[in-house]
């Protein structure tokens, strides 16, 4: 029996790319999307927060504000609210159709960012279960780069989250690197150094060997 192609293996699977700001995950989501689409696979690309009209509005509230003025609970609930909508409007229907869903960030980001801001991780698990039910990702790929490298990649005006102090971003990265020990769904880390093609090759190699 021949091994299934990557497209066959990923059909109906929910794959999340995550990591610190500037780690290159959005480029990797796009790259994998293009590869799968070119092979004729039905694939949906989306992002969290956002991905729906309601979610995009919530995204503007979150990233357009001075977060020093926003209580971390308010912040957390808004991220969860956006993804509750994303799951019901986009992710669940796409998976039911047998499409691959590629999502830029998910609850893993709430663990890292709101966790770094002091939110209790056990509560995040409860809230996450409430927001998405069983719809935790089949696989979360964390792209790992040092904070200074990530910051060098972020150009132009920083959003509210990116403007937080460096120590905050170090903490975010630390949580991402430990995520597989605390997250209720499979997490793998991929080395984000090198060219886009090199990182893409590592991602494909991971998807080929991971049990899904
Ligand atoms: P993005 O620009 O990569 O889409 O991310 C938006 C920002 O929001 C980024 O700085 C990470 C942050 N964020 C959180 O703080 N918590 C979350 O749950 C999510 C999804 C993103």
What can you tell me about this protein's structure?
- It is built from nine helices and five strands.
- With 212 residues, the chain is α/β, with parallel strands linked by helices.
- It has a five-stranded parallel β-sheet with strand order 2-3-1-4-5, sandwiched between helices.
- The longest helix is centred in the middle third of the chain and has 25 residues.
- Helix 2 crosses helix 9 and helix 5 crosses helix 8.
- It has one domain: Rossmann fold, CATH 3.40.50.
- The site of thymidine-5'-phosphate has 14 residues, from helix 5.
Features:
alpha/beta, five-stranded parallel sheet, 9 helices, 52% helix, binds thymidine-5'-phosphate
Number of helices: 9
User: Helix- and strand-based class?
Assistant: alpha/beta
Largest sheet: 5 strands, parallel
Rg for CA atoms: 16 Å
Assign an overall shape.
Answer: globular
């Amino acid at each position: 029996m021949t091994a299934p192609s990557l497209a066959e293996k990923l059909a109906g699977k929910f794959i999340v790319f995550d990591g610190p700001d500037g780690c290159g995950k959005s480029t990797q989501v796009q790259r994998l999307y293009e590869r799968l689409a070119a092979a004729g696979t039905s694939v949906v690309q989306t992002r969290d927060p956002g991905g729906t009209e309601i979610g995009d509005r919530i995204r503007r509230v979150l990233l357009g504000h001075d977060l020093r003025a926003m209580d971390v609970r308010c912040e957390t609930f808004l991220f969860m609210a956006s993804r509750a909508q994303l799951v019901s409007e986009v992710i669940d229907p796409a998976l039911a159709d047998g499409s691959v869903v590629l999502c830029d960030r998910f609850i893993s980001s709430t663990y890292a960012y709101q966790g770094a801001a002091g939110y209790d991780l056990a509560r995040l698990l409860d809230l996450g279960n409430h927001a998405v039910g069983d719809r935790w990702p089949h696989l979360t790929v964390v792209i790992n780069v040092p904070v200074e490298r990530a910051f060098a990649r972020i150009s132009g005006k920083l959003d509210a989250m990116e403007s937080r102090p460096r120590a905050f971003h170090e903490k975010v990265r630390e949580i991402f690197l430990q995520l597989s020990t605390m997250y209720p769904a499979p997490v793998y880390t991929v080395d984000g150094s090198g060219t886009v093609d090199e990182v893409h090759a590592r991602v494909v190699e991971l998807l080929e060997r991971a049990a899904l």
